[in-house]
Every structure is written in structure tokens, then in C-alpha cells.
Amino acid sequence: MSPLAVWSAPLSARRVFVVLLVLLMAVAAQVSDAGAVSGPREAGAAATPDRARYDVALRSDADGSHWSGRQRVSFRNASDRPLREVYLRLWGNGADGCGTPAAPAAVRVSHVRGGTPNRPAVNCTALRIALPKPLARGARTSLAFDVSITVPDRNARFGREGAFRFLGNALPVLAVRDAKGWHLDPYVALGESFYALTSDFRVRLDHPSALKVPATGRTRTLPGGPGRSVTLSLADRVRDFAWAAGPFRTATQTTPGGVRVRSYWAPGTPAEGVRLNRTDAVAAIDRFGREFGRYPYGEIDLVMTSGFGGGMEYPGLVLLGTTEEGSAVVHEVAHQWWYGIVGNDEYSSPWLDESFAQYANARFHGWDTRDCWSDVYWPDDESALIGSMAYWSRHPGEYHLVYTAGPCALADLERTLGADTMARLLKGYVRDHWYGVSSTAAFKKAAQSVTDQDLGPFWETHRIR
Ligand SMILES: [Zn+2]
């Protein structure tokens, strides 16, 4: 995620800081009380359920505001402990909660087969489903349910702008249980709460032919019923599935490295910004592929409108608020590696995706980061770069540090280790966590392994502790 488009031009750190501060104060009012909700704890358990496969068929109304259909998900228990339940995260309810009789929740699940659902919890973003019998380690089972999705009336990652619909975090996905128990953290508008293991998706979206439907994965669109089309998507080893719908204009390019970049923009989007986004995306995909490991998904969709605030990343699809100066496209493309390929619990460790994406962005744009640490102001001794979204939600005015101090810390680490060693570190770190989940401890260990220098004082100084 990135608050508005402050990434494309070589702005001074101070101006970035001020812009971010204003923005974050603006969104602070939307942040609900984000006290962590933790499940029962267990020691040393593998993250589960894993190897999920989602089969989804949804049909939209005339303008893409409402989607309904059937979703099936099969999964494995990767843990030594039996799996007696799973949770679906209904993140689309994060902003509006459980709704009212007159305006029901945005995402609703019904007619569950394969398990017994409770009432939705955590502000209707978590649905516990008890399995009929405990699932042993290595065993698979599946659930199926009806899903109903109504796009909210706000310009947001799950929202709308004019005739265009954004369906980010709209599709129910499985929560993760690991050594810390079930992760049932609350939704935060300020950043991301999302934590998911890589999964395979097969999604069929039936929509009016007048709507173009960019989506996660490799997509193709076939004729449907009268006046309708069917967009089919295949997406393997991704953490989420997002799509959009509207009368977009489109263009397709293939990078020299062989990745298909499909651009979708609303007619009112400044043409120069669309052109800049496309050029930067093509260059960034191949550059980050060389630096971190080849982009594995074959295709990425750029979804561009003029009114969307900032940018938002999903596997294989990024939402980009676009001005004549472009957008945060490079930052959002970098998230394909930092969040997408190398996963992290975005609620507990947002710096692991945001600071890394912004470090990659700064390098791409050639920003001068010397002395950047002298611009970093910490409000007190307690605050740390590695704070959770629970912390940042209580201190929204400080959340910019993840985007400013974070990339600066990584640039300082590059100066400490040397550019070649830093490049080797990042390439190896990505390889070791490819399609997996990292942690702050894992990154520190990886960094320490490439140098004889004790990095303890470095972590302390940079508040990575
Ligand atoms: Zn971001």
C-alpha cells in the first residue's frame, strides 16, 4: 500500500514526510480500535491450513456492484496438531462491519457445506467453521459455500470510483494458524492486516461484456450468455485474489523478460500518467526480477484511475491512483516480491513488506539516501521500526516511519555491508522464503550470515529490535 503518489518524483525526504503526515492524519480517523485478537497459543506448530485451492464462480449484476456465486476451498493440515476448525477472513467487512438489516454486510457467506459455521466475529471479518471431525496432519478436506459481495460506496481498495469497481480483499480467504495460534487480527484502513499462505485459485467471473475485468492470475475472456462474457483466471501460489470491473481502456505489453503487463485505465486518467506507469512497470518488473528472482506469475495488471488514493498491491494486480506525474507503480510492483513472493504477517510486521518495497522503489528511482537517517525523528524510546499494526494504529501519525525510516535503514544496511553483499543478501533471502513466510528474526539472521561484522549495534540504532 502507499498513501497517494509521492513516489515517482525525486522529492526531498522532508516533503515526503510532510505529505505522508498529512495523509496519515486524514486516514487516522478511519482506523478502528485495533487491539490484537489472539487465538489459543501453541508451540512450534507449522503454519496451516496450507496448499489451499480455491474454486470460485461468481456472476455480477449490470455494473459490477454485486457479485454472487459459489466458492469451494480445499486445504491440507500441515501441522502436527489436528485441525478442528478453520476461519474464513471476510476482510471486505472491515470498513463497515456487520451491517444493518437495511444495509447488510458487504461480504456474506451462507449454505456452508463441509463444516458448521459460527456467527461472524471480529467485526464480521472472521467466520469460524468447525470441521465435522479433526483433520490429521497431511490430510485434506474441503468446504463449499455461497458468497455474496456488494461493493461499498467509497473510493477504496474495496470500493468504487464512478463506473469502476475495485474488489480488493473482497473474496473470503482462509486465516492462518501457526505457533502463535490463529491469526484473527482486526482490519485496519491505515495499512494491511492480511496474512495468508500461498494458494491456487481457479476463478470464473461472469459479467456484462461492456465491463472489462482485470484480475489476479493469467486471465482470458470468453463469450458468455447473451450480452455477457466470462473471464477465467488461473493463479497458482498467490496469497490473495483481487479483481476490478468497469469500462476500462486497455493495452498490453510484454517486458523484455517475458512478463505480460496489461494496462487498464479509466478514460479520465491523465494520458501522460498512464504512459509513465506502463513504462515504469515494464522496467521495474524485469529489474526486480534480476535483483530478487524472476517474477513467477507471467502477468501483471495495472488498474489506473485518477481518483484512487495512493496505490494498493495484490498478487498480479495493482490499483494505482494516477496523476499526470504517474503513480506509486514501482512501489506496488516491488510488493509482488515483498509481501507476494516473500510473505509476511502484514499485521505483526508491516515493515517487512512496506519498508522493503519502498527501499526497492528508492533504488529504482535513484534517490539520494545518504544522510537520510538524520531526517528521521522518533517520538519516544519505545517506538520501533518493527512495530505491529496494533502499535501504528494507536500512533497513526508515526506510521510514515515504515515508509521513510524503513527504506533509509535498509539503505544504511547496504552502505554497511557494501552494495554487492546487500544484493547477495536480498537474493538469497528471497530464495530462502520463496512462496513462504518470513519474519524480522529471519531477516536479521540472514543479514548477519553474510558479514563478520556484529550487526547488533546496527539493529539497535535503526530500531530493528
Ligand atoms: Zn506499500
Automatic annotation (TrEMBL):
Enzyme superclass (EC): hydrolase
Superkingdom, taxonomy of origin: Bacteria
Transmembrane segments: none
Keyword annotations of the record: Aminopeptidase, Hydrolase, Protease
GO molecular function, one term: aminopeptidase activity
Residue ranges annotated for the Peptidase M1 membrane alanine aminopeptidase domain, each copy included: 295-366
Enzyme Commission number(s): 3.4.11.-
Family matches, as PANTHER family: LEUKOTRIENE A-4 HYDROLASE (PTHR45726)
Name of this protein: M1 family metallopeptidase
UniProt organism field: Streptomyces galilaeus
